[in-house]
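Support request, please re-run this one:
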Amino acid sequence: MKIPNAFLILAIFRIASTITIAAKVDADCKVKTGLGQALIGHSFSSFTVKDFQDCYQECKANEPKCRSMNYNGDHKRCELNNATETSHPQDLKEVPMSVYFESRHRVSAGSQRHVAGKTCQEILSREESASDGFYWLNSNDTEDPYVSFCNMTNGGDISASYDLIFLDRNTTNFVELNTSLPDLSAFTVCFWYRAWARQLVFLSYATSNMTDAIMMFLSETGLFRFLVLNKQTHSHTGTYNDRVWHQMCGKWTDSDGFVHLFVDGELQIRGDTTIHGVIPGTGKLILGQDQDTFGGTFDREQSFVGEMSHLYLWNTDLEDSVIKSLSMHCKEYPHPGYILRWSDFSTGINGNITKRDNSRCVTKQDVLL
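Re-run finished. Output below.
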């Protein structure tokens, strides 16, 4: 009985030595091993190899799908696993002449272009440590991999992650909110856009007796106009129809009466006159068109052309510092307390507008190399 045990110890020692050599392939590699153990029930590929080194290289070649591996020195059998002992500790079993190997320094799914995931859910299923953030995705074979925000807190659900693409100027292209708003004595509205032209309306909110209760507009000369309760403020802010994603926030409160408009977190408009009153909640909110009459009479030359994403409305005037922080990352659910969210606009789409899932809206801070 002692002789087989001696052979087992020698075999395991040789495998352990091979592990050390293999780990040196990556200088910063941190590994977790289990001598005389194997992860059971998670193998996606099983085959014969010459030695442990070959098994290790096969796992490396199959990253990020290969999360760990089992090598049996007696049968020279290699098993590639799509899970780890970290996520499934109950499945690590005693198996004589086997070794379990888990690399802690590996290319994570979605972390680089060449390991783009098809969906956020797929990345989450492969990476138990995946958290909210930006990842490389490749949801189909018709476009290059792209960067998109994945909300892993809600299981990778993308129902609120989409862009609306207004493909041309037309009075038939608009999005109408299908839910009602409360009366507003204060508000902040923020959204992201990528404009393809000047002289366009981002949004308008009209009531039966007030066509410009809220309206945000970019003129042909680059002048931003922000209307509240039919009163207009404006300021020249530069070029923002450059096909780059920009964030716009407008806020107002009846208490002080001043309107403020921010572009990319920077204050661009501060009204020099006060506007007081209450915005009635019986109106229509429309994206992409100016309502010259309640719910209609659009002007083709002012219709929005470009992309829009992540519009949220709060019934309070957010602090300037909060608006600044919101401009750093383009993502859904940017700040709590909203009364209107981007997913509310997934219906009510009219005309030549494309709804593109997995938002492509990113900032310089969000670009992954």
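The mean pLDDT is 84. The longest helix spans residues 2-23.
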